[in-house]
Specification:
The complex is a heterodimer of chains A (about 500) and B (about 500). Chain A is of the alpha+beta class and about 500 residues long. Chain A folds into 3 domains: about 5-300, no CATH class; about 315-425, no CATH class; about 430-490, Arc Repressor Mutant, subunit A (Orthogonal Bundle), CATH 1.10.10.410. Chain A has helices at about 5, 60-70, 170-190, 230-250, 295-300, 310-315, 320-330, 330-345, 350-370, 380-395, 400-410, 415-425, 430-445, 445-455, 460-470, 475-490; strands at about 10-20, 75, 80, 85, 95-100, 105-115, 120-130, 135-140, 145-150, 160-165, 200-210, 220-225, 255-260, 265-270, 280-285, 290. In chain A, the strands form 4 sheets. Chain A has a 9-stranded mixed β-sheet. With about 500 residues, chain B is of the alpha/beta class. Chain B has a domain at about 5-250: Amidase signature (AS) domain (Amidase signature (AS) enzymes). In chain B, about 40% of the residues lie in helices and about 15% in strands. Chain B contains 15 helices and 11 strands. Chain B has helices at about 10-15, 25-40, 50-65, 105-115, 155-165, 180-185, 220-230, 275-290, 305-320, 340-350, 355-365, 375-395, 420-425, 430-435, 465-475; strands spanning about 45, 75-80, 115-120, 170-175, 190, 210-215, 260-265, 295-300, 400-405, 440-445, 450-455. In chain B, strands 1-3-2-4-6-5-10-11-9-7-8 form an 11-stranded mixed β-sheet, sandwiched between helices. In chain B, strand 7, helix 8 (about 275-290) and strand 8 (about 295-300) form a beta-alpha-beta unit. In chain B, helix 2 runs antiparallel to helix 3, helix 2 packs across helix 5 and helix 9 (about 305-320) crosses helix 11. Chain B is globular, with a radius of gyration of 21 Å. Classes of the chains: A alpha+beta (about 500), B alpha/beta (about 500). The interface between A and B is large, with 29 and 44 residues. The complex binds zinc ion. Zinc ion (ZN) binds near residues 25, 28, 30, 46 and 157 of chain A.
Chain lengths: ~500, ~500
C-alpha cells in the first residue's frame, strides 16, 4: 500500500443473493431443479406471470431461510410480510418481484471472519426472501448480425434469499473471507449449493472510503457484475484505489452503480443516482402476512447442525492445530467422515483425533487429490480405514507397509486385516528372526561397518535400510537399530 | 317449448329434473334469445354457442344419470376477466384480444364441475375499471331497459345478459361496486361476497385486496345457489377463508322478525335522486312490516372517505397488476419500433384504453417515493378506520341497509368524459368493498321507469344473513325475476 492509501479506510457492505435448493419454486409447484433442463420446461401460469394467477408460499423455503437466519445469529421475526418491488424488465414476468421490504424474516445477525489472525464479527443487517427472475440469453442473428434475446423462464420464481451485511468490512481480503465463510455456512446447513460460477450465489458490494478517524461514511458506490470470489476481491481493490484517487485529486465521489469488467479489470459506470429506480414497494395483497410461531422456530432450530466455527473450536480443544482443525471442518461431509473415523478408533479422544487427522490430511487427502474427488467418493468406510490405522498404530505393521495396504484397500475394498494376513505383511519384531538378518547385513557391507567405526552415525541408517529391503519393509526399525548397534559394538 | 330463457335457474332446474325439457333445449332457447337481442345489448364479448351445446349435452347425460346439481344444465354468462381454458379471455381490453388461456379459474372449474353451461364471456369495462361498461375495447353494453342508457359497470355485460334473458344467471366481479351497481341499474340481484369467500385464482386482477367474484341472478335463491357453487377455500388463493362454506339455503325462507337493521345516515346525501330515496324508504317500510327493527339514526362518519381510499388503493394495486402486459409474453404486442423498450412502451400505449392508463398513472403516483406515506399508507390507515366503524355497527345491527346507487341508469356518454362524476356512482358500494364486507343489491322498485336497487351489507362471512333479509324482502315485495321489456331487435 502506498502512504496515501494507508491514510484512508475502506468501508464495504455486501449483498448476497443465494438460491435455495428447495424441490419446488417459491410460489408455485414447478420443480426448482432445472439445471440442464430444456428452456421453458419448468414453467406454469404462476411463474410465467399469466393473468389472474396467484402466489402460494413454499413452506420449505421459509424453513430454510429461518435456518439460515439462525445459523447467522439473527433474530427471527414473529411477524413479517411480502412486498411487491415494481420495475420493468423482460426477465421479470409479472412486472414486479415478490420480495420483502421493511419486515424481513431475519435481522440483526453476525458472521465471524478471520483475516491475518484477526477475528471480527461482520454484522448481518437482514436476510429476506424473494423470487428469482427468468434468464435472458443474448444472441446475434447469424444472417443479419442483429442482436436479439431469448427468455428462459425456468429460473423464474425460484426461491432466492438476500443476505445483507452491515458496512462492517474493511478490506477486499475481508470481503472475500466473509463470502467464503458465508458460503461455507450455507452449504453446511444444506440450504443452497452456493455456487458462484453456477449463479446460485451472487454478490453485489457497496463500497466507500474515508479518512482514517472519520466517523461519517463517504459516498458509497454500488458494484455489480462480479462473478467469482476473485472478481469481488479485485473489483474492491480497484474501486478503493479509484475512489482514493478521485479524492486525492480533489474530486467528489458520485453515488452510482458501477459494473466490474473482467476483461478491463476495472469498474465502469452503469447508472447514476438520478437514474436510480423507484421500486414503489407496497405490501403484496395476494399473500397474508407471515406469522412464525416460537414453536416453529424451535423446530427449525433443532435442524441446525454444528457449524464450522464451533467444529474448529472443538477440534482445537482435542489438540489439533489451527490448520488441521480448519481443513477438516471446511466441508461438512469431510468433517463428518473425520468424526466417524475418530469414533471408530480406540484409545483416548485426543489420540484418536490426532491419528484420524494425520490420515485424513495424509493418505486420504492424497488419494482425493489424485482422483480429483470429494470425500463422498472416497471408497473406504471410516470403520475400515480405522482398522488399518489401528494396525499401524499398534505396530502390527510398519508405517511403510500401512501405506501399501491403504492402496490395496482402496483398490480392492478388502479389509486391512485380510490383506495383512494373506500377504504376510505383519511387522517382524522378533529378536531371533531379525538377529540373523542383521548379521547378514553387516557381513555384506564391510564399507558401512568401517564408516560406522570411523564415527559416521549415518552408516547405521544405511544398514537399517538394507534389513528393511530384505524384509520388504516389515522389519521393526527400532528393534533392527538396537540389534545393529549391539552387534557393531561387539 | 317456448321462451325457456325466461326461467330463473331454480325454475329451470325443476323443469330439467322433471324432464319437462332438456338442457340442450334450454340452451338453444337462450341462444335464440341471444341472437335476437344481442345486436342491441352487446352483453357478450365472446359467444361460445358450440361449446354451450356440447356442455348442455353432457349436462343432459348427467341429469339422466341422476347426478345433477342445481346448476347442471343451466346457461350462465361469465364475466370476461374470469379465465376460461381454451376460451378467449380479454378482460375487456385490446391488450388481451387474442389471449387464449391454457388454464382455468377456480370459479369456472367449479361451475363446470357443477355442470353449468357457458353461453359466453360477458362484456365489461376494461380490466374492470369503470361503472358503465363504456370503457370496453369491444363497444359499450346497453341497458336492456333502455338501450340509450348504460347498464352500470364494470360487470355491465353480466347484469345486462341476465336482465335481457341472454343467460339465466351470471358471474361478475366486484372491486368497488362492479356487481352491485350494474345489478341495481339492470333490476337484478347481485352479490359481492366477503373478501376471501371466493377464490381469486384465475380472476384477472384489478385491485387484489378488493377484487371478489360474485353472482348476478334474477332472484335471491339463484344468487345463493351460485355462491354455494363458487365459494369456499382454495389452496391456490392464500387469501381465501379456510372455514367451510355455511349452508346458505338454510337462510332462505326464514323470517326476519326482530332482526336489527341499521340505516347509516351518511348514505342519504344530496345528489341522490328523489326517486331512489323514495324507493329505499318504501323498502325499509316493507322490512319493518316483516318485523325487523329499523334504526335510521346510525352514523358511520368515515363513509365519505371511502371514495378517496378506494381511488388510491385500487389504482396502486392495479399499477402493479397491469405491469405484466408488455407484449413480451402474450397478448397484444406492438413490434413496430426498433428497440425492445420502445416496443414495450408502444404496446402499452396502444393496448390500454384511457381509463386504464389514468388509473395506472394514479397508482404509480400514489406509490412513488415521497408520496407513499401521504397517499397509500394514509389510505390504508383510513381503510382500517372504516373497517372499525363497520365492526362497531355490526355489534349493534345484524345488517345495514343503504341505496346501491345514487341514481338510476344514465345515458351512454353522459359521464364518460367526467371521471369524477363517474366515480361518484360507486359512492354507496365503495365502503363495504374497502372493508371487505359482503353486500347484496336487490331490486326495490322503479324510478322514472328504471330499476332501483337496495344494498344490504353484512358482517364478515355472514352472507347467510344478508341473503335471509334479501330473500324475505323479495318474497314480500315481489320485486324479482324482472326481465327487461326488450323486444327482439
Ligand atoms: Zn411455476
Amino acid at each position: 500500500m502506498t502512504a496515501i492509501a494507508t491514510e484512508y479506510e475502506v468501508v464495504i457492505g455486501l449483498e448476497v443473493h443465494c438460491q435455495l435448493k428447495t424441490a419446488s419454486k417459491m410460489f408455485c409447484g414447478c420443480s426448482a431443479d432445472y439445471s440442464g433442463a430444456e428452456p421453458n420446461t419448468h414453467v406454469c401460469p404462476v411463474c410465467l406471470g399469466m393473468p389472474g394467477v396467484l402466489p402460494v408460499i413454499n413452506e420449505k423455503a421459509i424453513e430454510d431461510i429461518v435456518l439460515t437466519g439462525l445459523a447467522l445469529n439473527c433474530s427471527i421475526a414473529p411477524f413479517s410480510k411480502f412486498d411487491r418491488k415494481n420495475y420493468h424488465y423482460p426477465d421479470l414476468m409479472k412486472g414486479y418481484q415478490i420480495s420483502q421490504y421493511d419486515l424481513p424474516i431475519c435481522r440483526d445477525g453476525w458472521l465471524e471472519v478471520e483475516v491475518e489472525g484477526e477475528r471480527r464479527r461482520v454484522g448481518i443487517t437482514r436476510v429476506h426472501m424473494e423470487e428469482d427472475t427468468a434468464r435472458l440469453l443474448h444472441r446475434v442473428d447469424p444472417v443479419t448480425g442483429e442482436p436479439y434475446s431469448l427468455i428462459d423462464v425456468n429460473r423464474s420464481g425460484t426461491p432466492l434469499m438476500e443476505i445483507v451485511s452491515e458496512p462492517d468490512i474493511r478490506s477486499a481480503a475481508e470481503a472475500r473471507e466473509y463470502l467464503v465463510r458465508l458460503r461455507q455456512v450455507l452449504r453446511y446447513i444444506g440450504v443452497s449449493n452456493a455456487n458462484m460460477e453456477e449463479g446460485d450465489f451472487r454478490c453485489d458490494a457497496n463500497i466507500s472510503v474515508r479518512r482514517r478517524g472519520d466517523t461519517a461514511f463517504g459516498t458509497k458506490v454500488e458494484i455489480k457484475n462480479m462473478n467469482s470470489f476473485r472478481a469481488v476481491h479485485d473489483a474492491l481493490v480497484f474501486e478503493a484505489k479509484r475512489q482514493i484517487g478521485v479524492l486525492e485529486a480533489g474530486g467528489r465521489i458520485e453515488q452510482e452503480t458501477r459494473g466490474w469488467s473482467d476483461e478491463r479489470q476495472a469498474t465502469l459506470s452503469q447508472r447514476s443516482k438520478e437514474h436510480a429506480h423507484d421500486y414503489r414497494y407496497f405490501p403484496e395483497p395476494d399473500l397474508p402476512p407471515l406469522r412464525l410461531s416460537a414453536a416453529f422456530v424451535e423446530r427449525v432450530r433443532a435442524r441446525l447442525p454444528e457449524l464450522p466455527a464451533a467444529k474448529v473450536e472443538r477440534y482445537r480443544a482435542l489438540g489439533l492445530s489451527a490448520y488441521e482443525a480448519a481443513t477438516l471442518a471446511e466441508e461438512r461431509p469431510r468433517a463428518a467422515y473425520f468424526e466417524q473415523l475418530v469414533a471408530a478408533l480406540s484409545g483416548d479422544e485426543a489420540r484418536r483425533a490426532k491419528l484420524a487427522a494425520n490420515w485424513m490430511l495424509g493418505e486420504v487427502a492424497r488419494w482425493l487429490n489424485a482422483n480429483q474427488a470429494e470425500i463422498d467418493r472416497f471408497p473406504l468406510e471410516p470403520a475400515a480405514l480405522a482398522g488399518l490405522i489401528e494396525q499401524v498404530a499398534s505396530g502390527a505393521v510398519t508405517a511403510l507397509v500401512g501405506k501399501e495396504v491403504f492402496d490395496q484397500m482402496v483398490a480392492s475394498g478388502e479389509s486391512a486385516q485380510a490383506i495383512i494376513e494373506r500377504q504376510g505383511l505383519a511387522q517382524i519384531s522378533g529378536q531371533d528372526e531379525l538377529a540373523g538378518l542383521v548379521r547378514k547385513a553387516i557381513a555384506a557391507n564391510p564399507k558401512a561397518v568401517a564408516d560406522y567405526h570411523a564415527g559416521k552415525e549415518t552408516a547405521v541408517k544405511f544398514l537399517i535400510g538394507q534389513v528393511m529391503r530384505e524384509t520388504r519393509g516389515r522389519a521393526n526399525a527400532q528393534v533392527v537399530q538396537e540389534l545393529l548397534e549391539r552387534e557393531l559394538k561387539k | 317449448m317456448s321462451e325457456l330463457w325466461r326461467l330463473t335457474a331454480h325454475e329451470a332446474h325443476e323443469g330439467l329434473r322433471r324432464r319437462e325439457f332438456t338442457s340442450v333445449e334450454l340452451t338453444q332457447s337462450v341462444l335464440e334469445r341471444v341472437a335476437e337481442v344481442e345486436p342491441t345489448v352487446n352483453a357478450y364479448i365472446t359467444l361460445t354457442a358450440d361449446l354451450a351445446l356440447e356442455q348442455a349435452k353432457e349436462a343432459d347425460a348427467k341429469l339422466a344419470a341422476g347426478a345433477a346439481t342445481p346448476l347442471t344444465g343451466i346457461p350462465v354468462g361469465v364475466k370476461d376477466l374470469i379465465v376460461t381454458k381454451g376460451v378467449r379471455t380479454t378482460a375487456g381490453s385490446k391488450m388481451l384480444e387474442n389471449f387464449i388461456p391454457p388454464y382455468d379459474s377456480h370459479v369456472y372449474e367449479n361451475l363446470r364441475r357443477a355442470g353449468a353451461v357457458m353461453i359466453g364471456k360477458c362484456n365489461m369495462d376494461e380490466f374492470a375499471m369503470g361503472s358503465s361498461t363504456e370503457h370496453s375495447a369491444y363497444g359499450p353494453t346497453r341497458n336492456p331497459w333502455n338501450p340509450a342508457l348504460v347498464p352500470g359497470g364494470s360487470s355491465g355485460g353480466s347484469a345486462a345478459a341476465v336482465a335481457a334473458g341472454e343467460c339465466l344467471v351470471s358471474l361478475g366481479s366486484d372491486t368497488g361496486g362492479s356487481i352491485r351497481q350494474p345489478a341495481a341499474l339492470c333490476g337484478q340481484v347481485g352479490l359481492d361476497p366477503t373478501y376471501g369467500r371466493v377464490s381469486r385464482y384465475g380472476i384477472i386482477a384489478f385491485g387484489s385486496s378488493l377484487d371478489q367474484v360474485g353472482p348476478i341472478g334474477r332472484d335471491v335463491e339463484d344468487v345463493a345457489t351460485m355462491l354455494d357453487c363458487i365459494g369456499g377455500h382454495d389452496p391456490r388463493d392464500s387469501t381465501t377463508n379456510p372455514e367451510p362454506m355455511p349452508d346458505l339455503r338454510h337462510y332462505l325462507g326464514r323470517d326476519i322478525r326482530g332482526m336489527r337493521i341499521g340505516v347509516p345516515k351518511e348514505y342519504f346525501i344530496s345528489g341522490m335522486e328523489p326517486g331512489v330515496a323514495a324507493r329505499i324508504e318504501e323498502a325499509l317500510g316493507v322490512l319493518e312490516g316483516l318485523g325487523a327493527i329499523v334504526d335510521r339514526d346510525v352514523s358511520l362518519p368515515s363513509t365519505g372517505h371511502a371514495l378517496a381510499v378506494y381511488y388510491i388503493i385500487a389504482p396502486s394495486e392495479a399499477s402493479a397488476n397491469l405491469a405484466r402486459y408488455d407484449g413480451v409474453k402474450y397478448g397484444f404486442s406492438d413490434r413496430s419500433a426498433p428497440s425492445m423498450w420502445e416496443n414495450m412502451e408502444q404496446t402499452r400505449a396502444k393496448g390500454f384504453g384511457n381509463e386504464v392508463k389514468r388509473r395506472i398513472m394514479l397508482g404509480t403516483y400514489a406509490l412513488s417515493a415521497g408520496y407513499y406515506d401521504a397517499y397509500y399508507l394514509k389510505a390504508q390507515k383510513v381503510r382500517t378506520l372504516i373497517s372499525r366503524e363497520f365492526a362497531e355497527a355490526f355489534a349493534r345491527y345484524d345488517v345495514l341497509v343503504t341505496p346501491t346507487s345514487p341514481t338510476v341508469a344514465f345515458p351512454i356518454g353522459a359521464k364518460v368524459d367526467d371521471p369524477f362524476a363517474m366515480y361518484l356512482n360507486d359512492i354507496y358500494t365503495l365502503p363495504a368493498s374497502v372493508a371487505g364486507l359482503p353486500a347484496i343489491s336487490v331490486p326495490c322498485g322503479f324510478s322514472e321507469g328504471l330499476p332501483v336497487g337496495m344494498q344490504i351489507i353484512g358482517n364478515f362471512f355472514d352472507e347467510g344473513r344478508i341473503l335471509q333479509v334479501a330473500h324475505a324482502y323479495e318474497q314480500a315485495s315481489g320485486f324479482k325475476n324482472q326481465l327487461a321489456p326488450l323486444a327482439a331487435g
